[in-house]
Amino acid sequence: MSMRLSSSQIYQQSVNIMLEQQAKLTEVDQQIASGKRILKPSDDPSATVQILNLNTEVLKLEQYSSNIDAARTQLSQTEEVLRQSGNVLQRARELLLQANNDTLDSNNRKAIAGELSSLKSQLVALANTRDATGEYVFAGFQVGTQPFSEEGKNVVYAGDRAQRMTQVGSGIQMAVRDNGHEVFRNVRTGNGQFVVRADETNTGGAVVNPTQIGPFVADTYTVSFSLVSADTPMTYQVTDSAGAVVAAGDYFEGEFVDVGGARLHFDGMPTNGDTYTVEPSDVRDVFATIQDAVDVLEGFASGTTSTALLHNRLNEGLDNLDQSLSHLLDHRAGVGARMNSLDTQQDVHETNVIQLKESISSLEDLDYAEAVTELNLRLTALQAAQQAYIKIQNISLFQYL
Amino acid sequence: MPEVLNIATSGLLTLQRALSTTSNNIVNVNTEGYSRQAVHFETQQSRQTGAGFIGSGVTASPVERVYNAYLVDQVHLHTASESSLSTMSDMVSRLDNVLADPAGGLNQNIQKFFSAVNSMANNPASSPERRVVIAEAEALATQVKYLDNSLDQLNTEINNRMVNLTNEITEIANNIAHINERIVFVSDSSANILPNDLMDQRDLLITRLASKVGVSTVETNDGAVNVFIGTGQPLVVGSDVNALSTAKNDFDSRRLEVVYTRDGSNADITSSITGGELKGLLNFRDQVLDETRNQLGVLVVGLGESINEQHRLGLDLDGNFGQDFFKPAEVGVVADPDNAGAAVIDVTISDYTDIEASDYQLRYDGSQWLMLRKSDSSVTTSAGSFTLDGMDISITGGAPQTGDTYLIRPTHGGAAAFEVQLSKPGDIAAAAALRSESNDTNLGDAALSVSADIDSAIAGDITVSFDPDAMGPGMPGYTVSGAVTATIAYDPVADASGVDVALAGIGTLHLSGNPEAGDSFTIANNLTATGDNTNALALVDMQELRVLENGKSSFQSFYGNIVADVGVKARQAEVNASTETTLLQQAQTARASVSGVNLDEEAANLLKFQQAYQAAARVVSVADSMFQTLLSATRR
């Protein structure tokens, strides 16, 4: 037996169906209006969370990209200062080579000393470079303090030894600034392993030219020359820091002496009692290296320095200057490498952002073709329900009474 | 002949009653709660004659309503659960909409805050960038407040609706009691004469009541219906009513509970309410609102405390140690007003990574304290102060009394209290507390860096020097002297690639490389280091750290979970509600199929009774013509 239906129930059912179709129609309508598939988290909770996470990731990568832009600005400034400083040192080197030439008189040398002094000041100014916000670039973290200042002949450093880092990727930090200590002060002397010095009191005419023939055995060695009588050859003796004799022999002009891995060529004759020391390299700042040359040239001009000592000192100064130049070059190469790595990093970020945005779009954007089809289906369904309602309403036994 | 007339008259009278019943059905086709009525025809008692029993006409039974008590009960039952589930669904979907922010809501604010800190790290001495950090932190706090307010509004709405609902329930109960009284008064159950319309009205009232609160009914012999709620609390007994009302929770004045009054005594029956709108609201409050609020609390307490902790380790632009960036979180502790003991309970957060999104009940049972975690009902016992879920619970003061109870809420008020405490850009601690420098005369290539874990300046510089015999002859290490003294073993060969050493009063030293005897490092307060961004970068790192839930979630993934949680619950509630709506419609259809008026059927009945009436009237005219025939036969 079929079920008995009450009249109001029949109407109510038709009305319910129409209401339901209308609600669904409105939902599709909202989706189309907003272009989004997900209007609230409950529409698709797991996709909502994915979208949240992906958006976070995009913003994070964009922040890294902007960090990289800032880092690049800072690094290129450092790079430019290092380039200019290199030029200054290169000029100083040329001057030292000139000054080492015996054809120059003391006035020429005095002029060279003057130019060297001004190069030193230029270098101090470069080391005190500030960035666009007024911060000292080479002061470590003491960005509000002028890092280098000339006190008499010395240049003192007031910065610290910290290195500014920045976040350029998830868990990746990169140095964006180098401190002045590392760049301008932490330079090895001599050839980087040892340094040969002629004693101030030497009176002979020997100019020493060191080369390295093997691993340097770190110690302070003293090479002393002695001439017992005019009939016997000049002898030399090498002692280590403890005073033990490590080598000895006769010396003839143009010969060399080997000391702990260093080979000392002597040009000219030493006199009795002349000493030379071979010491492990120390660190010396670039300003002092230039100042040393100035001092030697001025000493020579005032007659307190012998020609041989001048050459010895200038040779030593040239070694130190070469160290400074290659030190700056190393830093410049390091900065360049960091800038390259920033570019690579930024490319990776940008590619990732594009991919992430595609993923977000595929999760939250509406498929319009699908949505419009859905809209038409819903419209048809609603119209059908409305027509059915009208038809049903017209059928009643009372019409025939 | 008189029999014929009598029979016809009985037919006319009975059919008139049937016609008026049918008419009544027709006009009540749209009356809510109306049950169609019917009269049944019965033969009148026959006369016994010598020729056998001769029929004497028709009579009608009393008008009765067509009714199935089981089906009506089903409608009541499904009305209650449908109302409960759709109320729940409505409320969750409102919360769902609050969290539906295409830009990411709180997540985006957290991101912007960390981005601002990151930009500050690029330029730590800059005031504008520091200002942006504070502005973004305030925007974050505002968004947290907005979410908390949204939750609060829902709570206020629940309170208001609970007041209205309990009033309405009591009023409907009064109406039912009143109708009960009249039904008992007018019914004549022996004659089966019942006030159909009153009974329909009462059913309708019970249906309306069921949409407010789940009920069960029992009909008594005198025609009255007793109505019960919850776990059997009588709401209506005959003509008596026990009222429902609301009262403030003992521990939380912003939370109402359902109170049931019987014989002048009140009882809190909130937890026994079963269905209807009231249960929907209570379910939403217990299962979604409280939990969401507590989860939001876990997030902001963890965020605030972890940022504060890191911030206090750094130095600001003036070289002072960082203050709390956000207002420190406080744990809410409320004592039951009935407590008789003198214990003093003080709760602080000791480990923000460990806190749970739950309220706790602490109760003294006479010998020990019982701590009930409400989220999973787990109980921890302790004789005195203890630590649980990242909280230090300190119990001091006088002796407690048995039954003393406290409500402990580590996360409930977290979002409401979340605000930025730092106001001056220069107070942001972007720099590290300590710096370390190698001595210029060092011969080896050893390096030392320091991660400070201190919140006040060291008393003076600290020198760390390498000594091949620091730990005894032939046992190399570093000697620490100055404000902190110690010796640290360090093997230049084995440790050259780097070791971390904890140093009390300093933090962690990272040592590496190959030192020569006498090589030394100086550790000093990192003063005037305005260009230092070390601590700012450490703050940036917090974004990625899995700080919450014991190292399971980062801030943003945790917020994602909150959104997903509400989304899933909204979806589930919607499915449940729509299923139950279908069930309710089926129950209503089933009841209507028995009790509802069908106009076609009534039209047919109308025709049927009208034709019968015409026939009976015809019988009268036949009786009349018979009578006339008889009269004319005797007129002569």
SSE topology:
The complex is a heterodimer of chains A (401) and B (636).
Chain A: H1 7-34, H2 45-99, H3 106-127, E1 148-151, E2 154-157, E3 165-169, E4 172-175, H4 180-185, E5 194-198, E6 207-212, E7 221-226, E8 234-239, E9 245-251, E10 256-259, E11 262-267, E12 275-280, H5 286-301, H6 307-364, H7 368-394
Antiparallel strand pairs in A: 1-2, 3-4, 5-12, 6-11, 7-8, 7-12, 8-9, 10-11
Helix pairs in contact in A: 1-7, 2-3, 2-6, 3-5, 5-6
Chain B: H1 2-27, E1 37-38, E2 41-43, E3 47-49, E4 52-54, E5 58-60, E6 64-65, H2 69-99, H3 106-122, H4 127-186, H5 196-212, E7 215-219, E8 225-229, E9 233-237, E10 240-241, E11 244-248, E12 256-262, E13 265-268, H6 276-311, E14 332-335, E15 343-349, E16 360-364, E17 369-373, E18 378-382, E19 386-388, E20 391-397, E21 405-409, E22 434-438, E23 447-452, E24 462-467, E25 477-482, E26 486-489, E27 499-503, E28 507-512, E29 520-525, H7 534-541, H8 555-595, H9 599-634
Strand element count of chain B: 29
- How would you name the oligomeric state of the polypeptide chains in this document? heterodimer
Helix content of chain B: 40-55%
- Evaluate the radius of gyration of chain B: 42 Å
CATH homology superfamily name of one domain in chain A: f41 fragment of flagellin, N-terminal domain
Strand fraction of chain B equals 15-25%
**Top-tier CATH class of one domain in chain A:** Mainly Alpha
- Molecular shape of chain B: elongated
Structural class of chain B: alpha+beta
Beta-strand content estimate of chain A? 15-25%
User: What is the rounded distance between the termini of chain B?
Assistant: 21 Å
CATH architecture of one domain in chain A: Up-down Bundle
Topology as H/E string of chain A?
Answer: HHHEEEEHEEEEEEEEHHH
State the helix count of chain A: 7
Helical coverage of chain A, percent range:
40-55%
Low-pLDDT ranges of chain B: none
Q: What is the tally of helical segments of chain B? A: 9
Number of strands of chain A: 12
Major sheet of chain B, described briefly?
A: 5 strands, antiparallel
CATH topology (level 3) name of one domain in chain A: f41 fragment of flagellin, N-terminal domain
